[in-house]
Amino acid sequence: xxxxxxxxxxxxxxxxxxxxxxxxxxxxxxxxxxxxxxxxxxxxxxxxxxxxxxxxxxxxxxxxxxxxxxxxxxxxxxxxxxxxxxxxxxxxxxxxxxxxxxxxxxxxxxxxxxxxxxxxxxxxxxxxxxxxxxxxxxxxxxxx
Length: 144
Description:
- By secondary structure, the protein is of the alpha+beta class.
- 44% of the residues lie in helices and 30% in strands.
- It has 2 helices and 5 strands; from the N terminus they run ααβββββ.
- Strand 4 and strand 5 form a beta hairpin.
- The chain starts with a helix and ends in a 5-residue tail after the last strand.
């Protein structure tokens, strides 16, 4: 009959088992690091896309503000611009009811409030909206 004890005491091949276990452990660590890197890359990309949309919306309301200061429209016309092939903004401005009040040096002034809504869009459907309230103060005699 065969004796089992000498087979159990034989240590031949144990180094390969230990090496395979270490290799499996290193493979799992490497796959985890790769997955983590891909997730971080996606987060960074999305952050950049939404910043592009925000800056597009920022450009839009600032252009509308310059237009309001220079032309003094009752209701400013909407503005739509393409900044790049996939980044754009659309801006609308609404003039609210003017506020008549006594101003400086006993002159009559008018305060004309505006509400400006700027929508920016970027690549991969990134979107941002900025709503700004602007007040323009001028001499009332300009409106007579």
